[in-house]
Known about the structure:
Protein name: N-acetyl-gamma-glutamyl-phosphate reductase
Pfam family, one: Semialdhyde_dh
CATH class of the largest domain: Alpha Beta
Distance between the termini: 36 Å
GO molecular function, one term: NAD binding
CATH architecture of the largest domain: 2-Layer Sandwich
Shape: globular
Bound molecules: NADPH dihydro-nicotinamide-adenine-dinucleotide phosphate, ligand 2
Number of strands: 11
Helix content: 25-40%
Strand content: 15-25%
Strand order of the largest sheet: 6-7-5-8-11-10-9
Keywords: Amino-acid biosynthesis, Arginine biosynthesis, NADP, Oxidoreductase
Mean pLDDT: 92
Low-confidence stretches: none
CATH topology of the largest domain: Dihydrodipicolinate Reductase, domain 2
Structural class: alpha/beta
Domain Semialdehyde dehydrogenase NAD-binding: 15-71
Amino acid sequence: xxxxxxxxxxxxxxxxxxxxxxxxxxxxxxxxxxxxxxxxxxxxxxxxxxxxxxxxxxxxxxxxxxxxxxxxxxxxxxxxxxxxxxxxxxxxxxxxxxxxxxxxxxxxxxxxxxxxxxxxxxxxxxxxxxxxxxxxxxxxxxxxxxxxxxxxxxxxxxxxxxxxxxxxxxxxxxxxxxxxxxxxxxxxxxxxxxxxxxxxxxxxxxxxxxxxxxxxxxxxxxxxxxxxxxxxxxxxxxxxxxxxxxxxxxxxxxxxxxxxxxxxxxxxxxxxxxxxxxxxxxxxxxxxxxxxxxxxxxxxxxxxxxxx
Length: 308
Ligand SMILES: NC(=O)C1=CN([C@@H]2O[C@H](COP(=O)(O)OP(=O)(O)OC[C@H]3O[C@@H](n4cnc5c(N)ncnc54)[C@H](OP(=O)(O)O)[C@@H]3O)[C@@H](O)[C@H]2O)C=CC1
Ligand SMILES: CC(=O)N[C@@H](CCC(=O)OP(=O)(O)O)C(=O)O
């Protein structure tokens, strides 16, 4: 695909920038630096709502951090929403409720994140060369992953964090080892997650980690799947989360935030929650159907565009 010719707000005249800024909401799916420049220019031009998918503003106290089930709807007065990163989404969704409930120690959390290649976007690092990645799996960005400060900031606890690439296109599985407080059982951890997500159709707490946590169950959906394992011999307990990095880790989470911010039905345009899928329907089929319907229906129902 040819690159977009407009690379910076300087290339747009004042009227053009004002026209862009007059939208109900502008979503920026750009790398960090251009996202910073465009957000500043749009807000300066009076934009009412800017939703940034990059990591530029995720620890900015002036931005609302948009992980709907944990941080709620963006306040009406907010002008900037920072869409969380993919690893932070899975890690925070599975661990924050346990820390909030005071059930695990904050000092000894170790997290292993595994992800497909699309998490890196179009930037073709050597490690993503087909011949290097196909049939391979390896750690990357060890000791320097930019999601560590983001996760620690929103978790309120230090973490050890390692990421590994998988030779797949999309999907992410995060495994955290946590130390329960004295006397706390894995069942209590699971119950705390169930209680926290009782009213959250897009987060599913599985009864066992080996019952449906696989990437095949989440790719193409907006779902977060979480599960708690048994106590290991070390005394630590594994807590799991899987998501689609491109959907819940980026695009569908942005849409979920936009719906909440604009006061629209929260699931507008999102694939159906997993629990609502008929048994045996692959999530990717359901996503395609939902996308087709949400695009086609408004057109069909609009008297100006409907074909008689
Ligand atoms: N992929 C993922 O799983 C996730 C991504 N994110 C974040 O979301 C953002 C987008 O990610 P992703 O779509 O994967 O990234 P890509 O690298 O695939 O795409 C980035 C896009 O930004 C455009 N772009 C780059 N520089 C400029 C510029 N100066 N002006 C205008 N357009 C520009 C590129 O356009 P062109 O093609 O014309 O060069 C390209 O379409 C990033 O900040 C990323 O970190 C967040 C969570 C998960
Ligand atoms: C495979 C791969 O390289 N993944 C990326 C995920 C980056 C990402 O999702 O970017 P955000 O910070 O905008 O969330 C990484 O680990 O850095």
